[in-house]
Structures are given as structure tokens and as C-alpha cells.
Amino acid sequence: MDIKKIGMVGAGSMGGMMSLLFAEYGVEINFFDPSEQNAKSLLKRAEEAKLSEKIKRQKDYESLCNSLGFPKVFVFSLPHGIVGDKTVESLKPYLKAGDVIVDGANEFYRSTERRQEVCRPLKVHYIGTGVSGGYQSARHGPSLSPSGDDEGLDLVMPFLQKIAAKDSQGRPCVAK
What we know:
The chain is α/β, with parallel strands linked by helices. The protein has seven helices and seven strands; from the N terminus they run βαβαβαβαβαβαβα. The chain has helices spanning 13-24, 36-48, 61-66, 82-91, 109-119, 134-140, 150-163; strands at residues 5-9, 28-32, 55-57, 73-76, 100-103, 125-132, 143-147. Strands 3-2-1-4-5-6-7 form a seven-stranded mixed β-sheet, with helices on both faces. Helix 2 links the parallel strand 2 and strand 3 (55-57). The protein is globular, with a radius of gyration of 15 Å.
């Protein structure tokens, strides 16, 4: 799947930097973050990087979902724990079979498995993803460790390989 739009949920240090990275690869980023400070910081950095046309703030989950195509692709960059659960629940009314959630929050595996079970009956792919290297790598290409169902992984792997850090031989630092 050629990912052209992403719904970024969370625009703090990691989510903001990933948004800029994705935009540099030509992806339209529509983001939602309830923190005014996070939102303003990302929009300022987007302007400084001349990426403002690629990064748009959405006011709520409904507008975020309406800004995306089909299938919708989300990337989460959220605090660990209940925030991810609440975010999945808030998105559920807008999710359709085939949508993909890539949780880039380095979440505890049991939380990922629980959310995968919530999404499975909806036929929504939930991909838990380790993102290594901190916000600096999130900006320039992190090492990634995605986990989820094979169909969902097959949908997002080309994108993850494109944005991942590369080793000395140019191979992406991402594997199933």
C-alpha cells in the first residue's frame, strides 16, 4: 500500500518529529493532540522546515478521521497505558474494516495484545511498534520493530522500510 496520508495521534517530542519525517517523504499528516503547546510546537517546526502544506492540525477525532482516505492509517505517539486504550475507544466509531493503527509508543506488549483484540472484530489492523533512537531518530529515521497480523504488517512494511534508519549498506532498520 502506498501511504499518502497519516492520522498522527500525539504530537509531543516523538510524534512531532515523526510527523516531520513522514512529511519529508511526501506524506500528508493530519494530526490531533489535545495539548495546545504540542500542536503549536509542531506547526512552528513544520513552518521552519517548509512543510506547513503537509502538516495540518485537526480539532478532534472525527475531523481527523474525515481528513483521511481509505484505508485510514494512524500512527500513535502516546504516553503508555490507559491513554492508548481511550484513544482506540474514541476512534472506534470512525474505524472501518481495513484501517490500520501503528502504535509507535513502545507500549508494553500486553497492552498491545489487548488493543489488538479490541480491533480484531472490527477487522482493523493494530500494529504495535518499537521505535528506537529517541526524538532525534524519530526526526531522521528510527529503527523499528513492528508486530501484528501478517496482513496489517504487509500493508505498512513498505512505508516503514522507507522511513526507517538505514544501516551502512543502505538496508532499512526494520523487520517483522
